[in-house]
Hints:
By secondary structure, the protein is of the alpha/beta class. It has 2 domains: 5-261, Alpha-Beta Barrel (TIM Barrel), CATH 3.20.20.70; 272-338, Antifreeze-like/N-acetylneuraminic acid synthase C-terminal domain (Type Iii Antifreeze Protein Isoform Hplc 12). It has helices at residues 18-30, 43-46, 55-61, 68-73, 79-91, 103-111, 127-134, 149-161, 189-197, 211-218, 245-261, 272-275, 278-281, 316-319; strands spanning 5-11, 35-40, 95-100, 117-119, 140-143, 169-174, 200-205, 223-227, 284-287, 302-305. It has an 8-stranded parallel sheet with strand order 3-2-1-8-7-6-5-4. A two-stranded antiparallel sheet has the order 9-10. Helix 8 links the parallel strand 5 (140-143) and strand 6 (169-174). Helix 7 (127-134) packs across helix 8. 34% of the residues are buried. The model has no long low-confidence stretch (mean pLDDT 94).
Amino acid sequence: xxxxxxxxxxxxxxxxxxxxxxxxxxxxxxxxxxxxxxxxxxxxxxxxxxxxxxxxxxxxxxxxxxxxxxxxxxxxxxxxxxxxxxxxxxxxxxxxxxxxxxxxxxxxxxxxxxxxxxxxxxxxxxxxxxxxxxxxxxxxxxxxxxxxxxxxxxxxxxxxxxxxxxxxxxxxxxxxxxxxxxxxxxxxxxxxxxxxxxxxxxxxxxxxxxxxxxxxxxxxxxxxxxxxxxxxxxxxxxxxxxxxxxxxxxxxxxxxxxxxxxxxxxxxxxxxxxxxxxxxxxxxxxxxxxxxxxxxxxxxxxxxxxxxxxxxxxxxxxxxxxxxxxxxxxxxxxxxxxxx
Length: 340
């Protein structure tokens, strides 16, 4: 069984500062995630100057402007910065990843040799974007925040109509509220996506803490995406719903433990590690009193005691009425050779 793909979403938590972006890469590498993901966009190709910020963005940033455009303009990464971060990721032995928000960005990421692509929730209904992406004929991870099954199915149909197959797709259940209230997680919707579409599934998490993504892996997620930051108190749209470095490390360890825990055969049988404890923990039939040779065993002559190295108590009824071959003291472990 393949380990869960863990994407550490740095996103725009660099706040437009290259040194901060590198520190985020350091934190992702220290946590041993698979990919560290940024965002590739130009403000003018995402939002008009009239577009307003989401409530959570206004609350988390804390400035007086309600302009989404002005917010995004401060968070862009230039091509030179992309190249610098890619180089730094190679030095840190972690894979650089990014999400594009328009066709120009898709072409740019494809020119970098990306082996797979990630569709953000906001582009799920962007037909030209999906159509363009499918022409690359590379695996796609599709986030579904704010989406209904009808919208998800339509997006999948667009991707597949341009040559991708269901085997090329991983669909992530997601809730686009930062942070997501626990009562809105609806984690079982992830399994509904798998049942309805027949695709690999995953989970893009915006809750506080690490328990929900860990639970998602136990429920079958093959990809986990989680925002992280250097400090949740920094100004910016996503910091408050992000993990800090120590929490990211804990999440990765937790997920890797679940990867191991669900990697077994699925057949209920004693494991190698527990087999040695069977004799210690289980019981055997012992004598409750001293008995002489020729005695016939009755119910009150017997009791079950540890260790489990003798006759199993499950043989109780088969022992009753048997004759002893020799004298035995009280609390003696009964063996088959003691019986006629």
